[in-house]
Write a structure and sequence with these properties.
The chain is an alpha/beta fold. It has four domains: 198 residues, Beta-Lactamase; 93 residues, Beta-Lactamase (2-Layer Sandwich), CATH 3.30.450; 163 residues, P-loop containing nucleotide triphosphate hydrolases (Rossmann fold, 3-Layer(aba) Sandwich); 89 residues, no CATH class. It contains 32 helices and 21 strands. Strands 2-1-5-4-3 form a five-stranded antiparallel beta sheet, sandwiched between helices. Strands 8-7-6-10-9 form a five-stranded antiparallel beta sheet.
């Protein structure tokens, strides 16, 4: 209610705002409100004829104040420069003040800055109400709402030539950070000024929110789909347990809740959905916005963003306080020596307060090759040495790159990943370097910022760099060497400060010899080259698998049956970590509510692939593997020990031995023996397929499929 009396809220020119905001407040009640403010100042012992205070704090104290508010200044300074372009040549200035009312920074027209200096409107001076009476900065601090103080509404007469529009800046938890203010000559007042100030304050707040929760799930929503991606969208931050951690002011306005009330909510109570469901929806390529109903019945269009590693990918799930508590409970139930299965390592607590929870330390899972790679990488962090990561597809190259970024001095700046293989060749130049308006047919209005510029101050990850078109490699090399980017259709170069990490599964040296990759670009990227081992060559598969399950099922994490682990270790994993994550994700769903992941929880396609393709086995595993079973004995033995045919498979039971290191050639007639076994098991179970599948150690779907195939369907 007070907000409506304080400030005009008409939309600023050039900003997209809904018509509901374009309302000039009534003057009724304004006089009474100003009188209340003036009475408050008089009670403080101030006089309306006070002379301006020309004694700002000492320079050393101002330096301390600025250092204390360095983060606020970092976020506000570029917004203030942008705002200055909107009000240039209007006899105005822009002021940033902290929560004590002390002016930290100001920019504006030189002529007006000199006039403002005559009333001590300058850095180092406090404009709190107890010092300067009613004014937009001080009164905003008291009222905690956007405020306009115009001309004679100022308590001290010396300030009556000013018109001031100020808005508070809040963090995502509702704590005030400071005040943004535009002050000008009272004759230059414009009703749109307040709208500009409010939008600018919200821009600072949104940047602060993204900075605070860079590796958390953020939901962006609005009642109208076209406002998602604008300053009018609501943003809420969600923890891994679904609790609401923070929000911007647009979210509070749309939901009609205070920040304290909102932080008592969860996704389930707010929108009737879980964090897992949101992740699952937005995991697909180019997902459409979700349509969610709030508890009040409001319908919202919802998009999701997550700058950090994605849920469900191996080793990348930040361990929240909930997971850390679970880890502590697991440790209390059994010591690592008692368990003897690596689970204690997989569930090692990584408190959210520890910045290394998603860094290199978290990737160290006990494999000697991985440990050696991490040791090398640690030595070049913050040394401005490019990193080139080699390895097969799915080995976790982007995961390592994100961990390097997380452990570097650039952790609070952007991590921008570009997959050079997934962007059409005709668009990759515009995607990397950006473009001006009208640079090519189909270009967006006002152009677009390229990925390299987006990574300014942070890390640029060039994934599958070997797939970059040869014609663009020279331009990329020039940009990396000169640290300048020229957008398409522009003559202006933009300086950038980036750390560069490249990754590829290709042999770049062979490509250089074939003339498909530039040698000079190769040597620009390979300051340090590391190779990630394939999953089949790692010794930590059990630890990795358990971490995946911990990420998928943080509430009731199942164990992995020894027979499944043996099967995993005998398999070649052509898709590496990505394939393992998908297999376990499916198994976790199939075995929901059960304490162990067993073979019948694995997908039939995966199990058939394991037996169709000659499985990988290390020399050590081969030495321990049992002798292959002759085909004749296999067909006549117990159903649970039936050996697989090339095309039709009867799966072993949970108690069966691990797969042999090699499979003999099997006659086609074994398929007929399999069908006979299935029919015998069904007859013994009186036609109950569930009972038969358990006795045979195979899934019901396998029984259905084999019987269909036998009928020629």
């Amino acid at each position: 209610m007070v907000d409506a009396l304080h400030a005009p809220t008409s939309p600023p020119q050039g900003w997209t705002t809904p018509s509901a905001m374009a309302v000039t407040p009534p003057r009724a009640g304004r006089t009474e409100l100003i009188e209340q403010w003036h009475q408050r100042c008089a009670a403080l012992g101030l006089s309306r004829v006070e002379r301006p205070d020309f004694e700002p704090m000492r320079r050393s104290d101002l330096v301390v104040a600025r250092e204390r508010n360095q983060r606020l200044f970092t976020h506000a300074a570029p917004v203030m420069e942008m705002l200055l372009e909107q009000i240039v040549d209007t006899d105005s200035m822009i002021v940033l003040a902290d929560t004590t009312g002390t002016i930290l920074h100001s920019v504006g027209d030189d002529r007006f800055l000199q006039r403002a200096n005559k009333v001590a409107l300058t850095p180092g001076v406090s404009w709190a109400e107890h010092s300067k009476g009613t004014n937009a900065i001080g009164t905003t601090l008291v009222e905690e709402t956007p405020t306009v103080v115009h001309g004679g509404e100022h308590f001290i007469h010396a300030n009556n030539f000013l018109t001031c529009s100020a808005a508070p800046i809040f963090d995502p938890r509702g704590e005030m950070l400071g005040v943004l203010d535009v002050t000008g000559d009272q004759h230059s007042y414009h009703q749109h000024t307040m709208g500009l100030v409010r939008m600018s304050a919200r821009m600072i707040e949104n940047q602060w929110l993204s900075d605070d929760y860079a590796n958390r799930l953020r939901l962006h929503f609005h009642g109208r789909a076209e406002f998602i991606g604008t300053l009018l969208e609501g943003i809420i931050v969600v923890g891994a347990d679904g609790k609401i951690l923070g929000a911007n002011r647009s979210a509070l306005d749309q939901l009609g809740m205070s920040i304290a009330a909102l932080r008592m909510q969860s996704l389930a109570s707010l929108f009737g959905i879980t964090a897992s469901a949101v992740f699952d929806h937005f995991r697909s390529p180019l997902p459409a916005p979700m349509m969610l109903h709030a508890a009040s019945g409001q319908l919202f269009h919802v998009s999701a963003r997550f700058n950090g590693p994605q849920r469900g990918m191996v080793l990348d799930m930040p361990v929240t306080s909930v997971e850390a508590r679970m880890s502590g409970e697991a440790g209390a139930r059994a010591t690592p020596a008692a368990r003897g299965d690596g689970a204690a390592i997989a569930r090692q607590p990584c408190p959210a307060s520890n910045p290394s929870f998603s860094g290199l330390h978290y990737l160290d899972t006990g494999d000697a090759q991985i440990a050696a790679t991490l040791q090398k990488v640690r030595r070049v962090i913050n040394r401005d040495i490019p990193l080139l990561i080699m390895g097969e597809t799915g080995t976790g190259k982007e995961l390592l790159a994100r961990a390097v970024h997380q452990d570097s001095n650039r952790a609070r700046q952007p991590f921008v990943a570009v997959n050079c293989a997934s962007i059409p060749e005709s668009l990759i130049e515009a995607e990397l370097f950006g473009y001006e308006e009208g640079a090519f047919t189909g270009a967006r209005r006002k152009g677009a910022v390229g990925r390299i510029v987006q990574a300014h101050g942070g890390t640029l990850f060039l994934d599958e760099i070997g797939d970059m078109p040869l014609s663009l490699q020279a331009r990329l090399l020039r940009a990396l060497q000169e640290r300048n980017v020229t957008p398409l259709g522009s003559l202006k170069s933009i300086p950038v400060d980036i750390a560069v990490i490249g990754a590829t599964h290709r042999n770049l040296r062979e490509m250089i010899g074939a003339g498909t990759f530039r040698e000079d670009l190769y040597y620009r990227l390979n300051g340090l080259v590391v190779r990630l081992p394939a999953l089949r060559d790692r010794s930590d598969l059990d630890v990795v698998a358990r971490r995946i399950l911990l990420a998928e099922c943080p509430q009731d994490t199942p164990e992995i049956d020894p027979s499944v682990l043996a099967l995993f270790k005998a398999y070649a994993w052509p898709g590496n970590l990505r394939q393992l994550a998908n297999v376990l994700r499916t198994a976790a769903v199939m075995g929901a509510g059960e304490s162990h992941i067993c073979e019948h929880h694995l997908s039939d396609d995966f199990l058939e692939d394991v037996r169709r393709v000659r499985p990988y086995a290390s020399p050590a595993a081969a030495a321990q593997a049992p002798e292959p079973v002759p085909p004749q004995a296999s067909a006549l033995s117990e159903p649970a020990n039936a050996t697989a045919a090339p095309e039709h498979t009867v799966l072993p039971s949970r108690d069966a031995d691990p797969l042999p290191a090699a499979l003999p050639e099997v006659p086609r007639t074994l398929g007929e023996a399999e069908i006979d076994m299935i029919r015998s098991a069904l007859a013994a179970a009186d036609g109950n397929i569930s009972v038969a599948s358990k006795r045979l150690g195979i899934s019901r779907n396998t029984i259905y499929r084999k019987l269909r195939w036998n009928k020629g369907e």
